[in-house]
Amino acid sequence: MANWSELPQELVRKVATQHIENVEDFEEIGKVCSDWRSATKDVNLCPSKNTQLPWLMLVDPPNSPHRRFYSLSKHMFQKINLPQHDDDDDDDDDDDHVRYFSSKGWLISLSMKNRNITLFDPASGKLIKLPSVPLNMLWYGDWYDDSYLGHFSKFILSGIPSSCDDDFTVAMMFDGNQQLAFWRPGEQKWTKPVVDFDINWMLDTCFFYGEFYAIDHFGKVMAFGSQISNRQPRIVVDLIDQGVLFKQTNGMFYLVQVESKLLVVHRHHLLLDNHERNPENTNEVCWTICFEVFELNVDNGKLKSVEGVGNQAIFIGLNSTFSVEASSGKRGCKPNCIYFIDDNTEYFQEDAVLMGGGIDMGIYSLDEGKLIERFYEGPSQFCFTTPPIWVERRGNM
């Protein structure tokens, strides 16, 4: 029987760099023996395909120094220490509440006490501090209590920050109307574009071929240009005008780039009355009933319905919406599916029956047109501040 641990380090390194596409498989190589671990120590895994399954960041106590991340492929947990926000107060109160979002594999955290906003890369530990949001920018700017964190709904990065390149922009969706503001490295404050048309509760934002695109509650898609401060946003398409929507919907809209296409995902919700819910068996409660997917031509504003996304899987939640190429084997995600988590904050923050979000999670098959399974029903699932969120995998994390 061959002793695989005696393979030359050069061969192990070659296999790791040229043939490993999955982070979990790469990590397993280093566990074989010390020689294999040494051979792969300095290898920076950068898969040629976007096949890395994201982590599901779970819920832990607000003052915990770490968060647990759940691996869909290995069904295991990993603890990652998170940066602690500096507290300007002199007391020893450690009950500061922090809300988390994610984009491009980075975590975005907001502190309630001193309103710090921080970008954090779990893979490298790098920190980037962003300007705080003045209270007078918020819808209820004179409030300063637990509701402060509720003014923020998403953060989206245009690209992955690096040590040698600060060419990226952060888009922030905030306040009661979920407006947009933008920030670039070196700027001292957030920039709000001047919009000369009505925006009704923005739901999602996506960076697509050099421009930020956003969609509101009525299905109006707008583009904000490549130079945020110098260009007026423009309406790309209105789903009501095109007959896709006939009235306000109880669902959610998402924008996501899948390969070279910009897709609009419509999530339909079934809102149950209190007497229809069974608080003793919350696993039976599922408000997401179906999804529709449309391809948007940003040049002419035309939409067309698509039956699916082929060998891709879409991940939606309180993170920036993204897609992953399905890979074969037990560790791959399911193709032509939507992995969704609870992001209906308007309801779970106000209803104790909903336990703080985290119930409405599952995998929806576009082929079968139905929810086919749950991907997680373990502990640390419910939280009023930040329910579980997807965190993309980029390299060794």
UniProtKB/TrEMBL annotation:
Domain named KIB1-4 beta-propeller: residues: 69-364
Lineage, top ranks: Eukaryota, Viridiplantae, Streptophyta, Embryophyta, Tracheophyta
Protein's name in the database: KIB1-4 beta-propeller domain-containing protein
Matches recorded under InterPro entries: F-box_BR-signaling, KIB1-4_b-propeller
Organism, scientific name: Spinacia oleracea (Spinach)
Pfam families tied to this protein: Beta-prop_KIB1-4 (PF03478)
